[in-house]
Amino acid sequence: MFIFKCDNFVVCAYVVCIILIASILLIIAICSVCFYRYRLKRVQQISAREIDILMKKNEQNSGNQSDLKVKELKGIVELAVGNNPAFLVKYNEYYPAFSKKLLSIAPNMVTTEIEFCVLLRLNFETKEIARYTKASVRSVEGKNIG
Predict the structure, then answer these.
(1) 63: left (phi over 0), alpha (psi -120 to 50) or beta
(2) What is the mean pLDDT of the chain?
């Protein structure tokens, strides 16, 4: 235990105050780290659950596929959920004809519009597209209708 003698009351009060403030800041920092780790773990669990749901939808629509194709598609869905820029590149490797067909129909499409079409092709719902692309539901609905 830390014991010290102090002759001056003001200095002792000042030292105790500094120790108290440092302790409170340390407790706040520890709680913040614990909360951040809990939140991160929960977000990962939710994302994993959503990916599984999307994969089940895609498996129902695509029929029988090899395990390699299913794993590759799961990786693509994970990239889409994480709003990763590599998502469209991976999808084009998985199914190159889709983007080419889109561009042959509408040659002036931009990358975000192609990504939107790919997300629709992967059976994402409007709310999911809005959440993962960080857009409003109304703007996604407007793209979907227009």
Answers:
(1) left
(2) 80
CA atoms of 55 and 14, how far apart (whole Å): 61
What gap in Å lies between CA 76 and CA 87, rounded to an integer?
A: 6
Q: Spell out the residues 6+ positions from residue 14 whose beta carbon is closer than 8 angstroms to its own.
A: none
Helices 96-105, 111-121: crossing angle, 10 deg rounding: 120
Write a three-state SS string for 39-82: HHHHHHHHHHHHHHHHHHHHHHHHCCCCHHHHHHHHHHHHHHHC
Rounded to an integer, the average pLDDT of 36-44 is 82
Q: What is the pLDDT of residue 58?
A: 66
Kindly report the number of other CB atoms within 10 A of residue 86's CB atom: 11
Q: Which two tokens stand for residue 26?
A: 């340390």
pTM as predicted: 0.58
**39-53, 65-79, 98-112: which is most confident:** 98-112
